[in-house]
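Board notes (copied after class):
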Amino acid sequence: MQVFILSLVASSFLLQQPQDSVENTTPVLCIPSRTTSYKYPNNQYQAFRTENDFYYILNRTIYEEYNNATLNIRQRIAFKDVSKAEETFNLKTNFIRKKTDLSQHTFIHPNRQVYFLASFKQLDQETYHKYLVIDAETQTILLGNSNYQSNTIK
């Protein structure tokens, strides 16, 4: 009888422990308060267009890959992975730039789906480099950067 009661107490204790979920195991980019209300909440379980389909319907005044680009990247990723995608793009293009700090973007859930679009073009005397991060659900531009560099020796 004592074993049964001990088993019952132990099992009820184990059942009360919080279960790991994607929400509880996600790396934290910042430490939000308990009352945090994201402007862009978690949408990781929603289905969105593929990155290629999204690019083809995207308004070209917002973003267009360079003609005859050396490298183009199209990815649908979680917002928490934007810094890594940008860093990979910069490494592939030998572009030295400070890593983007996402800790100031506390209004965007780390698991929010976004499109990362990047384009790089290198000519004999010029280098063009740009990327854009667009929210997958609202199609709002969240981050972006472009750079032009002349390679002429003076």
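Comment from the instructor: The chain has four helices and four strands. Strands lie at 71-78, 113-122, 126-135, 141-150.
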